[in-house]
Design goal:
The protein is mainly alpha-helical and 295 residues long. It has one domain: ABC transporter involved in vitamin B12 uptake, BtuC, CATH 1.10.3470. 75% of the residues lie in helices and 3% in strands. The protein has a two-stranded antiparallel sheet with strand order 1-2. Helix 4 runs antiparallel to helix 9. The radius of gyration is 19 Å and the shape is globular.
């Protein structure tokens, strides 16, 4: 067992790095879906927008370029989430499919605009200075930047959990997830809550795109790939659950990394097989509530 672990340590660490990125992307999607009943299929397009922003501002791999890209990505994400909140508000009482089709249309438009602006080639982004090399981990060389992603993902998970579980703002979000009608009866405007949550969720998606650019680069189609992984994480973890998003992301990160390293020809089957297995055992996801599962 120890020998197997040593042989696959790099893939395991890659799984944690992928899982960290997926958590940053999926936690906002999970809370928005759980609270608003809006399946935001534009989430992957927002992620891709962040990746192309990294391409635009990180030409020489400077820290200034990265900070600029992160700041602009955060602002773009907030504005996009706010706009999306306004666009989906008239559909709030309609079937979820209507909202999903709207966000899918937005996703296709954003992806096409990015393709026109940047072309169809795979564009790479260098890691920032100081994070370009590798370090030895149990005798295996591993990129410093990917280790940084693991740390950033875990720290963000802690911050999001503390905000959602330990603050009055988080209590309001959780109450909206559990019973929107009761929150509205208390005089709280659900539209403002949804506006803020969707804005923050979209901001996390664009920021995740910037952070992922040195790993995945930027290319057409990346939005669809990453969206599928994020949706799998959300379903496995359970709607509206920060803990579920983290566990689901780390699980899928390992399945994705080890699957492609050990059995690449059936990696996709293993991914969706894991999803099916979890849903057979826990139809509401690992940490989802019955109410969230039924809308």
């Amino acid at each position: 067992m120890t020998g197997w672990f040593d042989e696959n340590l790099v893939s395991i660490l890659n799984g944690f790095a992928i899982g960290s990125l997926l958590f940053i992307l999926a936690v906002g999607l999970s809370i928005v879906f759980g609270m608003m009943d809006v399946l935001n299929l534009a989430h992957g397009a927002f992620f891709l927008t962040g990746s192309y922003l990294a391409v635009s501002f990180v030409a020489g791999g400077s820290w200034g370029g990265y900070v600029t890209a992160l700041g602009i990505a955060a602002l773009v994400g907030l504005l996009a989430g706010g706009a999306l909140s306004g666009m989906t508000e008239p559909l709030a009482r309609r079937p979820i499919l209507d909202q999903a089709l709207l966000t899918l249309g937005i996703s296709l438009i954003v992806a096409e605009v990015l393709s026109i602006a940047y072309g169809n080639d795979v564009l790479s982004v260098p890691p920032p200075p100081g994070l370009t090399g590798s370090v030895s981990v149990a005798g295996n060389a591993y990129p410093v930047y990917r280790l940084m992603l693991i740390v950033v993902g875990l720290l963000l998970a802690l911050v999001v959990w503390l905000v959602v579980e330990k603050t009055s703002v988080g209590a309001l979000v959780r109450a909206s997830v559990a019973d929107r009608d009761m929150v509205s009866a208390l005089g709280i405007d659900n539209r403002k809550v949804k506006f803020a949550v969707l804005g923050i969720g979209s901001m996390l998606a664009t920021v995740a795109g910037v952070l992922a650019a040195p790993v995945y680069g930027a290319r057409p189609g990346l939005d669809k790939t990453i969206l599928i992984l994020a949706l799998v994480v959300v379903v496995i973890g359970g709607l509206g659950s920060v803990r579920g998003a983290l566990i689901g992301a780390l699980l899928i990160g390992q399945v994705e990394s080890l699957g492609r390293a050990l059995v690449p020809e059936i990696a996709s089957f293993i991914l969706f097989g894991t999803l099916a297995l979890v849903l057979v055992v826990r139809p509401r996801g690992l940490f989802g509530s019955r109410k969230l599962a039924h809308g």
